[in-house]
Amino acid sequence: MTDERYPIGKFTLPANNALSAADRAACIEQIAVAPANFRRAFAGLNDAQLDTPYRAGGWTVRQVAHRVPDSHMNAYIRFKLGLTEDAPAIKTYEEKDWAKTPETRAPIGMSLDLLTALHVRWVALLRGMRPADFARTIKHPEWGTPSLDTILALYAWHGRHHTAHVTALRDRMGWAD
Fold first, then answer.
1. Does residue 123 contact residue 28 with C-beta atoms inside 8 Å?
2. Which tens digits make up the pLDDT trace of 136-152?
3. Where does 85-147 have alpha helices with state H?
4. pTM of the model
5. Engineering a disulfide at 59: which of 63, 103, 140, 176 sits with its beta carbon 3.0 to 4.6 angstroms away?
């Protein structure tokens, strides 16, 4: 049995905190297609299904729908900071508490739309960056000084990771696509 927390496996750091040009392009493409894949994972789910935790002790499917845009907005800002400041210190946030704020009980359409718009802008930024830009770093209190390549790889994985939480639950529960 696979670990329901990591249906696609845990994130693996890129060697030497850097991606090859081909791996970088693949990560950017994963970020580009993430909103459509994410939206498809939620298609046709009713309120009872949306309010089902994707695993015991985990977030509900609805919370996952709202959580990914929150996380990816932070990622986008981290990229902007990393591009415009020298190794900026970035702030963490309490993900579990963010998953409990009032709007996380609202219909998911607004968050799916937000994710789509955000990724259009983020991909435009990523495709405009030079290879040297991806070597720039940020200072994270828990991660040390990852490069923007590492952050790119992390969030390419992150979108697939949370999409798989929903699709794996659908498979386990027999919920039709």
1. yes
2. 999 999 999 999 999 99
3. 95-98, 109-128
4. 0.96
5. 63
